[in-house]
Design a protein that fits this description.
single chain, 126 residues, alpha+beta, 6 helices, 3 strands, elongated
């Protein structure tokens, strides 16, 4: 099973702005000198306190990319496998997630599951 991190490839695929970092850190944007996307973390150079590491999992872009993965599953088997990867990642790194992240992803997953899961009438031909 491919890990969620490997599916998302955040360092290569996520576009992270200084505005998004400032909102996450609840600081004015002018305090951010630059943002570096490293392989496993984001390094933020700040005027007021030097460097700071941020997990990709804390960013809205991470949630958006995960939601995109959910919404683009074409079979319920793919969707179930993706949810297993999400749960493994969340259980292992739950301190790196924002409070409402799991609920947000769960709602999107449930909606997609309902779209993909066959109705009892169509299950006869499985």
């Amino acid at each position: 099973m491919t890990s969620l991190f490997n599916r998302l490839q955040p360092a290569q695929k996520l576009r992270i702005s200084t505005k998004a970092i400032a909102q996450l850190l609840k600081i004015p944007q002018h305090l951010i000198v630059r943002v570096e996307c490293w392989q496993y973390v984001v390094f933020v150079h700040r005027r007021d306190r030097g460097g700071q590491f941020i997990s990709y999992r804390q960013l809205q872009q991470w949630l958006n990319a995960t939601a995109y993965q959910i919404q683009n599953c074409t079979t319920w088997q793919q969707l179930r496998q993706l949810w297993q990867a999400i749960e493994v990642d969340y259980n292992k790194y739950n301190k790196q997630y924002q409070d409402q992240s799991y609920q947000f992803l769960s709602k999107i997953w449930t909606k997609r599951w309902q779209m993909l899961w066959p109705s009892p009438e169509s299950a006869a031909w499985f």
